[in-house]
Amino acid sequence: MFTTTWTAPSNIAFIKYWGKKGPQLPANPSLSMSLQECVTKTQLEVTEHDEFTVEVLFNEKPSEVLTKKLFDYIKSIPDLDISKKKFKITTSNTFPHGTGIASSASGMAALALCLAEYHKSLSASEFDIEFFKEASSWARLGSGSACRSVFGGFNTWGECGESDRSDLFATPLSVHPSFKKLKDSILVIDDQEKKVSSTAGHGEMKNHLFSAARFESAKKHFSRMVSALKSGDMEEVGTLLEKEALELHGMMMTSPHPYILLKPNTLAAIELVQDFRIQTKIPLFFTLDAGPNLHLIYLDTHTSKVETFIQHELLPLAKKVIHDVCGEGPRKC
Ligand code: PMV
After folding, report:
1. Residue 243 — very low, low, confident or very high, per pLDDT cuts 50/70/90?
2. Which residues line ligand 1 (CB under 6 A)?
3. Which of 16, 113, 168, 259 is the most exposed place for a label (fewest CB within 10 A)?
4. Alpha-helical regions (H) of 92-197
């Protein structure tokens, strides 16, 4: 019997992956920050069995939906010995269900790390960059953005003219020391299931009137974001964060089948954030995932003033806030 357990973080995209090509490959390079508090913990047990079988326990309860999804996923992984094996997966998230934080990135990353360890049957000293690259490319097959969750700190995914950056797996990016503890306070404005899935959203980019312009813009934002993260230019990072968030939602609103995921309180909170920035000169910026919840990004040196602002001005517009920070990445338990 083989058994292992990994935790992996959720990540927030600074440059958004929106639109794909081929086998889960990105139409443009993306860049994200891994979180510290929002993580998935997954245990994998592999035993001999009559036939390939998958059993999934989510929050200690059997999940039929996940069992079906992960059966297909594990089968799709190249080179993995699955014949006459049972894969028992026991998984849970540290962030409560219904916070609007997608668990697919952290979940697929944690599982891919377990599977990559099973594949290689490595000892701890052999968890080198090649191991993480393989885990990243396997996580990608489950959910594109998950490939960036097999590392801590900042990571890029997608070709951008630099030889060490690939469409197949994510690559860590070293950044200015002032960003090592960058904060992300997640303002949960709405916790309902999304009306349109990310998979459908990516699909809309295939026949989108503005897709070529979006992919060009994302590439330009990507190289500017890399430079700003390296030089420590928070104003530039923040300007790009907000542009990316609004372009992402602009794409949704101008899709062949248009849709809106923003809520009135998302817009109200955005106005308050921008007013706060003008009045206090504190560089507080927002970004958005494919949903209505605001990710508030700021330097740790401003924590006290920003948290007070969130508590008094923004929380009345939201269900709750989760204070998170740039994280160290996955951990083998
Ligand atoms: O990985 P997916 O298919 O869930 O798509 C993620 C899309 C965004 O979260 C909106 C952007 C990103 O790069 O994470």
Report:
1. very high
2. 13, 16-18, 30, 104, 143-145, 198, 248, 289-290
3. 259
4. 104-120, 129-142
